[in-house]
Write a structure and sequence with these properties.
Strand order of the largest sheet: 2-4-5-7-6
Radius of gyration: 39 Å
Distance between the termini: 98 Å
Structural class: mainly alpha
CATH superfamily of one domain: Histidine kinase-like ATPase, C-terminal domain
Number of strands: 7
CATH architecture of one domain: 2-Layer Sandwich
CATH topology of one domain: Heat Shock Protein 90
Largest sheet: 5 strands, mixed
CATH class of one domain: Alpha Beta
Length: 747
């Protein structure tokens, strides 16, 4: 039956190809290559079936011969039908379905692509020839790629890891090895696992590939992935040999530009701006020679930034202007906003505020054409800064108000912390120039508050300006006082003149008296001036110390949060014991982090508000045991007071351990409502505190003795109470009760 069908099938294929040739020529004209035309014409000749199948396979490959995905799908479909009459029909059927899947990858229909590739795998499953094994491996690699491009990174890793067996057994080509390593790296990077991503990128780069140009292309792709993963050390180590090859062989293509871009980026991250500028110049030279205008603009833009970093504002401005000129020449309209904005700020650095305003206006026009609300709001704000420097307070105010209005009117654009800082700082400056120093200082304090841990390079200058205004105001008052005193002295002198006429002795005594009074006044005035200067210096130092302490608490909180994130990322699947130990460690660290968070959010730097701290701590513990939250209700009686940080840390750890033990041991599954009570009060009649944690669970074991307990948590509670020189009581009364008493004197 198979042979009887062949003449009919050949006729169908020939007619179909003729019709398709006519339609393709009509649609694409001369866009297809002569090679494709030659292959198509070969199908019209009388040729063996195996040759015809190979021609159809070439025409159906969307990554080599064929430029049109639809054309590839057309020929793949013909090959699929034609495969039914071939001797090795199963193999050719799998090849045809794979090509259909490849075409869907190129069409970015990844779900359909994976479906087709799985169909191809199913078709080839029982074949054991060498060719079928190679095809199976290629299909499995494409499934890995499909899942990665579909952004299903877990599935990509799940499909990719078994492919390593081909490499271990030496059954994979070097090109396929590079594919497997690179896309596993990409998948791990998609999951933010940079350590594993780096491991596979380095393996991909180490694969020996004879084609030098292809090797550089693949190496640059993997190095760029390492750079994007922020593994700058390995990126630099691996890109330097590639750059050396590029320079020795005088390679000037897009791969060279990408390699130089990575190298410049790494040197910029390391602060080596001299090398950054050197390699940006090489990048610019290649980009101009090869008409890669986008890369030329990018290199000029970042070169300008590097020149600014090494305090060469004039060279930075010239480079920025050249960058803007190239962008306008080649109509890179999408960059007009950012480049005009950059040039405007370069003029601000040179204190040429008039030219700055010109370019910032251009940036505003470009942002309005782009209809990007963030860019428009930022443009108004930048222009307001320039007007402020030009002392055009009305225009500055209008620009700031427009920017602020856009932010406040758009729910998707919340007022950011830097913007709040900028607005309050600008209002501080405006009030300062208008002589309203009280309002100026008020807004500056708000600026300091919102600025928090952000870099404030102009802090000392602004404090000096406010100090100068304060000193000027103080001196004016002193002048008024001195004027009044001089008037008094003049009256006294007149009176003395009258007295001297009659009473020379009284005049001499009066003269001596006035000299003594004046000398004492001068001494007192100098002393008052010295005290005032010291007071101002102390106030300045106090502001700086407040900022420093807030920054310390902020950094400690962030470092503890990093530790929590690291612990969370290493929780293994399936091992409940280790998972529980890590969870308890995270809760202990979180109890300390919450203290620094509360200190950071309050005006006090040494005392923690008890109510908010214990509420935050209990809420965190509940969230960490969310699978039991529906069964447990918390009641709290926390006195709203403040305690020293030295007491808050051990108390937080004690509460964390006692509540954690309650979750673990206190309740049985069939018990009614589970209640945990936390009580904290000042001791009546004496300086000290009373902490109580209790529950209505099954209570402590009859033979419970905390001294003999092997629980790390309870031993830590005991140690903390001992450290505080406190006293702990525990007993059963419709549940477990722990009472802890601490004297203030020991803190």
């Amino acid at each position: 039956m198979g042979k009887a069908k062949r003449p009919y099938l050949r006729f169908v294929i020939i007619v179909g190809v003729m019709i398709y040739l006519l339609s393709i020529n009509h649609i694409f004209g001369q866009s297809e290559s002569k090679k494709i035309d030659s292959l198509r014409l070969s199908l019209l000749k009388k040729i063996p079936d195996s040759t015809r199948a190979n021609i159809l396979y070439k025409l159906a490959n969307p990554y080599t011969v064929q430029s049109s995905v639809d054309s590839a799908l057309f020929y793949a479909d013909i090959l699929l039908k034609f495969s039914e009459n071939l001797n090795d029909s199963t193999f050719w059927k799998a090849r045809a379905i794979k090509l259909i899947g490849d075409s869907y990858i190129k069409k970015k229909d990844y779900e359909q692509s994976i479906y087709q590739h799985n169909q191809a795998l199913e078709a080839i499953q029982k074949l054991t020839t060498d060719e079928s094994k190679k095809l199976r491996q290629a299909i499995e690699i494409n499934i890995l790629i499909g899942y990665y491009l579909w952004k299903k990174y877990d599935e990509a890793i799940k499909k990719g890891l078994p492919l390593l067996k081909y490499i271990e057994r030496g059954e994979s080509t070097k090109r396929n090895e590079e594919f497997i390593f690179r896309y596993l790296g990409n998948a791990y990077l998609g999951l933010n696992n940079t350590e594993r991503a780096t491991e596979y990128y380095k393996k991909a780069i180490a694969v020996p590939i004879e084609d030098r140009e292809l090797k550089i292309t693949l190496s640059v792709a993997n190095i760029n992935a390492l750079y994007n993963a922020k593994d700058y050390v390995n990126a630099l180590e691996l890109v330097l040999p590639v750059i050396d090859t590029i320079q020795k062989e005088k390679i000037e293509n897009r791969d060279a530009l990408k390699a130089y871009k990575v190298l410049c980026g790494v040197y910029e991250m390391k602060g080596e701006y001299g090398k950054t500028i050197q390699y940006y110049d090489k990048m610019i030279k290649i980009a101009e020679k090869k008409n890669e205008h986008g890369y030329a603009i990018l290199a000029l833009k970042y070169k300008a930034t590097a020149l600014k970093k090494i305090n060469k504002p004039k060279e930075s401005l010239d480079t920025g202007l050249l960058c803007l000129e190239v962008a306008k020449k080649y109509d890179f309209k999408q960059l007009f906003y950012s480049l005009n904005n950059a040039v405007g700020y370069q003029y601000i650095d040179l204190k040429d505020y008039a030219n700055a305003a010109v370019y910032l206006k251009e940036a505003l026009l470009a942002s309005e054409k782009g209809e990007n609300s963030i860019d428009i709001a930022n443009s108004h704000t930048s222009l307001g800064e320039a007007y402020l420097k030009l002392e055009k307070f009305q225009e500055a105010g209008n620009s700031f108000e427009k920017g602020k209005k856009i932010f406040l009117s758009n729910k998707d654009l919340p007022m950011s912390l830097p913007k709040l800082c900028l607005y309050h700082e600008s209002l501080s400056i405006i009030y300062s120039f208008q002589g309203e120093h009280k309002n100026s200082l008020l807004h500056y304090k708000k600026y300091i508050k919102y600025k928090d841990s952000l870099a404030m390079n102009d802090q000392k200058g602004r404090i000096a300006e406010l100090d100068m205004a304060y000193e000027t105001e103080k001196k004016n008052k002193e002048i008024e006082v001195l004027s009044a005193q001089n008037e008094v002295q003049k009256l006294k002198a007149d009176k003395e003149k009258d007295i001297r006429i009659g009473l020379l002795l009284v005049g001499i005594v009066s003269f001596l008296f006035l000299g003594i009074v004046y000398n004492r006044y001068r001494i007192e005035k100098n002393a008052v001036a010295t005290i005032e200067r010291q007071k101002i210096a102390i106030e300045k130092k106090s502001i700086e110390n407040e900022l420093l302490v807030k920054e310390i608490h902020h950094r400690v909180k962030n470092n503890l949060q990093i530790i929590l994130s690291l612990l969370g990322s290493y929780i293994p699947k399936g091992d409940e014991k280790i998972k529980r130990v890590i969870l308890e460690s995270k809760n202990r660290i979180k109890s300390m982090a919450l203290i620094h968070q509360n200190l950071h959010n309050t005006e006090s730097f040494t005392k923690v508000p008890t109510a908010s701290y214990f509420d935050d701590l209990i809420r965190h513990i509940k969230n960490s045991y969310n699978d039991m939250n529906k069964l447990i209700r918390f009641t709290t009686d926390i006195e709203n007071s403040e305690i020293k940080m030295t007491l808050a840390v051990p108390l937080g750890l004690i509460v964390n351990e006692l509540i954690t033990n309650t979750y673990k041991y206190a309740f049985t599954p069939h018990q009614g409502e589970h209640i945990v009570t936390v009580f904290f009060r000042n001791l009546e009649g004496e300086k000290g505190y009373h902490l109580k944690v209790s529950d209505n669970g099954k209570g402590l074991p009859d033979d419970f003795n905390i001294e003999a307990s092997e629980s790390f948590g309870l031993q830590m509670v005991k140690g903390m109470v001992s450290q505080l020189r406190g006293k702990m009581e525990y007993y059963n009364e419709a549940g477990a009760h722990f009472n802890i008493y601490i004297k203030e004197a020991v803190l």
